[in-house]
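Interim report to the steering committee. The following record documents the input for DUF6876 domain-containing protein (120 residues).
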Amino acid sequence: MTTKTLTKEDLAQFTGTEQWYRHPLMRKVLFTDGVKYVADTAGAYWLIDLIAFSQVEPAVTAEEFQVWKLAVAADCSAVVTCEDGNSNQVMKQNLEFTDFPLDEISFYFTDNVILLPREY
């Protein structure tokens, strides 16, 4: 397990984006500076992949605005959920292990862009 230094205070600096990043395999999916920072700092490109690849699921793509949440338990297991923006769960995936450094994090997905809530 690696030591990663991502804090909620780090994420507070992202209130917009200066550059868009294109997902290498899901070419229609873009992500922001803040999302790239999370992926780089926490080694969490897997989480960006999960959001991007889930866009082929009919129940997920039916939602124009999505709220993605990662919740990490004390035993390093985790749950990733996708909601419709009105707290209605669209998808859920259990993870046996993650070394993600925060207990929780949320992303938005709208207009083919993954972004941090403060970047919306």
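The chain has a mean pLDDT of 95. The committee is asked to note this result when reviewing the revised timeline.
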